Amino acid sequence: MLNQRIRLLRQARNISQVDLAKRLGVTKQSISNWENDNIQPSIEMLMKLASFFSVSTDYLLGLDSKECLDVSGLPQEVVAHVRQIVEDLRRD
User: Fold this and answer.
1) Which of 26, 33, 60, 75 is the most exposed place for a label (fewest CB within 10 A)?
2) What's the predicted TM-score (pTM) here?
């Protein structure tokens, strides 16, 4: 599950394994190994991944199916607008 979530989140943001590796301070081979389920990231790296992708560690591990969007720091009128967009997309 973790390997699939990492791959899907990376691809959804249209970034390569090389780019993700640079942003996390690891090698491209580490990203490849995680995505191919050859090795697991450390707890520290799991937390970095969650932070980078703005998801919970539970989501990455498959313990929670909800993907959350961090809107902290945005004005309330912008948050309301984002909520409306999400609702509109659910109806389509």
Assistant:
1) 75
2) 0.76
